[in-house]
């Protein structure tokens, strides 16, 4: 879920999301959004409940929800570390 929230509520939303039991990842992003939120939910109904709660607690000006349909590749960069000069990564 990508979210834009009123500027004065950004810190409050961040604090709320960081303590949410369904949170998997939280990113500060650009291009018109404030946060990208990855939630793990048992059902679409649970995700809709979380989304509705965010709408009630915060003044969200823009929101896009995306569903992962298929996990094609995950963290491939770290699984292929032998392809990189490790010394460059640590500098």
β-strand number:
4
Main beta-sheet annotation? 4 strands, antiparallel
Number of domains: 1
Cα-atom radius of gyration: 16 Å
* Assigned CATH architecture: 2-Layer Sandwich
The third-level CATH topology is Alpha-Beta Plaits
Side-by-side strand order of the widest sheet: 2-3-1-4
Low-confidence stretches: none
CATH class reads Alpha Beta
Shape: globular
Distance between the termini: 34 Å
Provide the CATH superfamily.
Lrp/AsnC effector binding domain/regulation of amino acid metabolism (RAM) domain
Question: What would you note in describing this structure?
Answer:
This protein is an alpha+beta fold. It has a single domain (2-90), classed as 2-Layer Sandwich (Alpha-Beta Plaits), CATH 3.30.70. The protein is built from 4 helices and 4 strands; from the N terminus they run E-H-E-E-H-E-H-H. Strands 2-3-1-4 form a 4-stranded antiparallel beta sheet, with helices on one face. The N and C termini lie far apart (34 Å).
Describe the SSE topology.
Layout (H helix, E strand, L loop, with lengths): L1 E4 L4 H9 L4 E6 L6 E5 L4 H14 L2 E5 L11 H4 L6 H5 L1
Antiparallel strand pairs: 1-3, 1-4, 2-3
Can you describe this structure in just a few lines?
The protein is built from four helices and four strands, in the order βαββαβαα. With 91 residues, the chain is of the alpha+beta class. The protein has a single domain (2-90), classed as 2-Layer Sandwich (Alpha-Beta Plaits), CATH 3.30.70.920.
């Amino acid at each position: 879920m990508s979210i834009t929230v009123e500027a004065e509520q950004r810190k409050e939303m961040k604090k709320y999301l960081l303590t949410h039991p369904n949170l998997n990842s939280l990113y500060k992003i650009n291009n018109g959004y404030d946060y990208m939120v990855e939630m793990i939910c048992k059902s679409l109904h649970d995700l809709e409940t979380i989304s509705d709660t965010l709408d009630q607690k915060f003044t969200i000006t823009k929101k896009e929800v995306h569903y992962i349909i298929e996990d094609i590749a995950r963290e491939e960069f770290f699984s292929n570390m032998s392809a990189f000069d490790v010394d460059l990564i640590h500098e």
